[in-house]
Amino acid sequence: MKMVSRTALGFALALGIASGAMVAPAIAKEKDKKEAGPEQRKFKFSKKAQKALGEAQAAQQKGDNDTALLKIREAEALAETPDDKYMANALKINVALAKQDNAMLAEGLQGSIDSGSSTPEEKLKFQRSLAALAVQKNDVPGAIKVYEAMAAEHPGDADIVVGLGEMYNRAGRTPEAVATIDKAIKAKQAAGQPVEEAWYKRALALAYDGKLANQVLPASLALVQAYPSPTNWRDVLVIFRETSGLDDQGNLDVMRLMHDTNSLTGERDYFEYAETADKRGLAGEAKSIIDAGAAKGALSSSKPYVKELVNIVTPKVKSDRASLPGLEKEARADKTGRMAKATADGYLGYGENAKAAELYRLALQKGGVDTAEVNTRIGIALARSGDKAGAESVFNSVQGGKRADIAKFWLAHLNSKGGTQTASTVN
After folding, report:
1. Which ranges constitute the DSSP H helices of 138-265?
2. Which of 130, 93, 86, 124 is nearest to 108 (CA)?
3. Phi, psi of 253, deg, nearest 5
4. Which residue of 134, 170, 242, 343 has the smallest Cβ count within 10 Å?
5. Average pLDDT across the chain, whole number
6. What does DSSP assign to residue 171?
7. Quick count: other Cβ atoms within 10 Å of Cβ 400?
């Protein structure tokens, strides 16, 4: 039995995990055990392997790595205890680093792990180095094997789980990659730790690039709930619009959300929103968006098509607004809810959210309307009026199809960190 200081075992590995050479503990003489302090670890070397290990270390200290390697191989052949194997591989790591031999380094790292003598901290260092070596030589299956082992032993280490996700992606296992990164995000959340924005974006990028429709929406929602910046909102809503095949009515409600999240940017966004609103007979909303775009410098009245839209919309607004009370009266007398729904759309476009919600509810009572669409707009009206609880309840009632997805985005806006604190209106 030999006494060796654990603190002397400075396993400083290559590959960016640590720097410098590993310092293996001296193969101490029997009498040294009396001098061992309370923090020192007892290594148990067999008599057969001890001599070869000592000679290997002596040769290594003289810079004679070839002789050291011969003695290491001799010690491995004679090894009986876990510490014999551990020390042989510890010395092998030093030789590998001196020779810049990555194959030997991987052998030493794996041998140290397999010896069963390394501490949990050392084992994790060795595993990380093995994974890095595998990545360096583009051995993705090898890297996955190591990462899976680390993740199984350290399921709460989100960085390891993210690394495993990236390896799955490199192997073309994109669905697993997205699910694994999502698992890492949830692990951080469960531990009450902040999650890097880059992780959310990476999960979304992988799902989007991989055309994983079932994973794009959850990844999008997770990103904007955690980091509800205008840029992130624009990114996720543009992706949603591109991949969802929305009709004009659905597209209009998504653009309304872009307005409320301050994620409308540039001429295209403002012009498309205003043009769509005008086509749906919502002159007041169209004019409001034109004015907002002009105020931000996104729309220029000198552009012929912008000027044309302004000339179409502006004359309509006064008479359109004045017609709403009369249309409301007709809607209440109508047998179906279609007129009530159309009138509610008009009120919503002018920012009269309470009146809009009232007429949308009337439309549902009378029937003949798209229930999911109307409930979405009741939720929008309530959200903009500051009734968060009411809006949440209505949005949660929207089930099935793209309308349910639109409602989920509005819910994410309501519940995002730093989300809506005050009512948001178009006007």
Report:
1. 140-153, 158-170, 174-190, 197-209, 213-226, 230-244, 248-260
2. 93
3. -70, -30
4. 242
5. 88
6. T
7. 8
